[in-house]
Design brief:
Two copies of one chain form a homodimer. With 178 residues, chain A is mainly alpha-helical. Chain A has helices spanning 2-11, 18-24, 37-49, 73-84, 95-101, 108-136, 145-176, and strands at residues 53-58, 66-71. The first copy, chain A, is elongated and about 65 Å long. At the A-B interface, helix 1, helix 4, helix 5, helix 6 and helix 7 of A face helix 1, helix 4, helix 5, helix 6 and helix 7 of B. Chain A binds a DNA duplex (28 and 28 nucleotides) through residues 1, 3, 17-19, 34-39, 41-42, 60-67.
DNA sequence: AGCGACATGTAATACGTTACATGATTGG
DNA sequence: CCAATCATGTAACGTATTACATGTCGCT
C-alpha cells in the first residue's frame, strides 16, 4: 500500500492536517502520486490506529477542528524500513496510448488534434515544474545532501514531461509523413 | 473505464480468447496497460452482455472449452467513438520516486544500490522493446500508415525506458557528488 | 516426478472514484 | 451575491489484487 507511505513521507518534515496533505498531493508529491481528500482522511485515521502518526486536535471557531498529524518514532522507523526494501517496476497506464494504438480506426485529423492538445498539456506541466525548480532549489547546482533527494524526484517529473512533449512531436511528424 | 477499451483494442485485428488477451497484456499492450486474467475474463463477460463482443465456444478435449471473442460492429463503433474523445493526463505513480523523495532517512548506499538495480531493470525492458521494434517493424523507416499507430505506442515505451535509465544515472551521479 | 503452458473461472479483500453532506470566511 | 478557500467526513460504487480452484498435455 504505497499511499500510506506517500502520506508518511509528507509528514516527515512537518506535522500537517489532512487538508494540507491533500493539497500537497495536488502539487509537490502530486507529481508522482495522486490521492483525493477522501482517501487521505481515511488513511490518516488508519495510520493513527497503527500508531504511526499521532494527532493533536486544534479547536477553531466557525470551522471544524483542525487535526494536526505528526509522524511518530514508530512511523519514522516504518518508513525507513519500507524505503530499504526493493521497489516494484510500475506499468505506464497511459490512456492516450491505448487510443493511439488503434488510432487508424478514426480519421487522422482526430488523432493529430488530440496529440497537439496533449503536447500542450505536457508543455504546461513542464513549465510549472521548472518554475518550482527555480523557486525551491535556488542553490543549484550545489545542493546540500538532504535536499538532493526531493530534487531528484522533481527532476524525474521534469524529464518525464519533456519526454512526453518530444514523443507527441515525433508522433505528429510521423503521422504527417506521406 | 479504460480496461474495456484496451481489451476491445486488442480484438480489432483478430478474434481471441481471454487467455490470448491476457498474454498480450504481458507483452504488446502490456507496455502501457496491465490486467490479470481474472480481470480480463470478467470484463469480457461484461462486454458480451453489452453486445460489444460476440463469443464462439470452441469445444476441446481434455481442457476447458475455448471461448473465442470477436469485436462486433457495435463494439467497433463504440471504440472509434471513445478514441475521438479527449484523453486525460495520467499521473506517474512511481513507487520508486516516493522512496527517493525521502531517501535521506536511510544510508546513501541503500538508495544508490536500489537506483542501480532499477537502472538495470529498465535497461532490460528497453532491450526487450528494441527487439520487438526490430522484429515487428522491419520496414522502418517507411511504415505503411495503419502500422504507424501501434509503432508510435511502442516508441513511447522505448522512450520511456530510455528516460528511466538516464534518470537513474543522473541520480546516481548527483548522490555521489561531494 | 515435476514444471510450465494451456484454459477457465469464483471469492474475498483492498484500493480508488464519485456523489453527498456541512458550514464559516474572504475576495472580487 | 457568488465563488473559492478552509476543514472535515460518510456512503456507494467501481476497479484491481490476491488467493483459491480445477484439470490436461508435453517436456525434461
Amino acid at each position: 500500500m504505497a499511499l500510506s507511505h506517500a502520506i508518511l513521507a509528507l509528514l516527515v518534515d512537518c506535522p500537517q492536517s489532512g487538508y494540507d496533505v491533500t493539497k500537497k498531493f495536488e502539487s509537490s508529491v502530486g507529481f508522482f502520486w495522486k490521492a483525493t481528500h477522501q482517501q487521505v482522511y481515511k488513511e490518516l485515521a488508519r495510520l493513527e490506529e497503527l500508531n504511526l502518526v499521532s494527532v493533536e486536535r486544534i479547536p477553531q471557531e466557525g470551522r471544524p477542528d483542525k487535526k494536526r498529524y505528526t509522524l511518530t518514532e514508530a512511523g519514522k522507523q516504518y518508513l525507513a524500513d519500507w524505503i530499504s526494501q526493493p521497489a516494484e517496476m510500475m506499468p505506464i497506464k497511459e490512456e492516450m496510448l491505448v487510443r493511439v494504438f488503434v488510432g487508424y480506426l478514426v480519421a487522422p485529423e482526430i488523432v493529430l488534434k488530440e496529440l497537439q492538445r496533449h503536447r500542450q498539456l505536457h508543455a504546461d506541466r513542464l513549465a510549472c515544474y521548472q518554475q518550482i525548480e527555480r523557486e525551491e532549489f535556488p542553490q543549484l547546482p550545489n545542493l546540500p545532501i538532504p535536499q538532493r533527494y526531493p530534487y531528484l524526484a522533481l527532476r524525474r517529473g521534469i524529464r518525464y514531461e519533456q519526454d512526453c512533449v518530444a514523443w507527441c512531436e515525433e508522433a505528429i511528424a510521423l503521422l504527417n509523413e506521406p
